[in-house]
């Protein structure tokens, strides 16, 4: 598990959110969010949106 994935999962737990909640908030599919978090896909704009939404520092990912 990457550092980015760990931080996203911790942030979601802290906020009592699921990846589905995150996907809905960002207006993208759950499978796409999962691929971004697991670094199976690389979309710097969407990764930056995830980081901004969860108030993460530069936690890996491509953005």
Automatic annotation (TrEMBL):
InterPro entries (UniProt xref): Cro/C1-type_HTH, Lambda_DNA-bd_dom_sf
Gene3D superfamilies registered for this protein in UniProt: lambda repressor-like DNA-binding domains
Superkingdom field: Bacteria
Domain HTH cro/C1-type per the UniProt entry, residue ranges: 8-42
GO MF annotations in UniProt: DNA binding
Pfam families on file: HTH_3
UniProt cross-references to SMART domains, sorted A to Z: HTH_XRE (SM00530)
Identification of the protein by name: Transcriptional regulator
Organism (species): Mediterraneibacter gnavus (Ruminococcus gnavus)
């Amino acid at each position: 598990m990457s550092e980015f994935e760990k931080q996203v999962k911790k942030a979601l737990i802290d906020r009592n959110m699921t990846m589905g909640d995150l996907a809905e908030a960002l207006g993208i599919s759950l499978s796409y969010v999962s691929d971004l978090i697991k670094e199976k896909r690389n979309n710097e704009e969407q990764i930056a949106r995830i980081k901004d939404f969860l108030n993460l520092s530069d936690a890996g990912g491509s953005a």
